[in-house]
Design a protein that fits this description.
- With about 190 residues, the protein is of the alpha+beta class.
- The chain is built from 5 helices and 6 strands.
- It has helices at about 10-25, 40-50, 90-95, 100-115, 165-175, and strands at about 30-35, 55-65, 70-85, 115-120, 125-135, 145-160.
- A hairpin with an 8-residue loop joins strand 4 (about 115-120) and strand 5.
- The protein is elongated.
Length: about 190
Amino acid sequence: LDTLASQGPIHATADFLRARLAQVFPPNRFQHELLAAPLTPQTVGRLANVRALVVGLAFLGLRPAAQTGRAMQATQRWGLYLLTRAPAAAPRLLGDAQAPGLAELVHAAIIGLHGWTVAGERDAGAGTIAMGEGEAADAALWNDQQGALWSASLDIAATFAAPGPDTLQRLAQEWSFAGATPFTTDTLTLEGR
């Protein structure tokens, strides 16, 4: 899908994060999941039944900058989810010959993500990845005694290009749904134009 709405910083960041996670956590060893946020007990239960190492990624939201102009400045918030399995607590945390433990997964995620910059493409702004607070999954979501699930936030600055009348016209054409009101530029006033 290559529409105007799919060319912004959220898509560029998703593409970057998915590619980077595939480098750090090889898909032949880890199952990669793009998840809907917030995680529900049903989603966590489905992941627990995978019986494999899982790397999940979810878009959690945007926090606009206090002082932003027509080109929106914001911080994207993403969720990173790492799941490992082992029959005992020590290998779940520290790993063994069968699979890496949670400590190894967390360290690999920090090496592969924190401090790297998402390059802007098309109308997407660029931002550096800051790994935020990470913690084990809440017991309300997780009751698998052989698995360990860890989540962390990823904050990435983003700039959304300022739209002009031609941008809105293109969006209206790409999103021409049955029954939609046609877009006209004569009712639009943009400051600074």
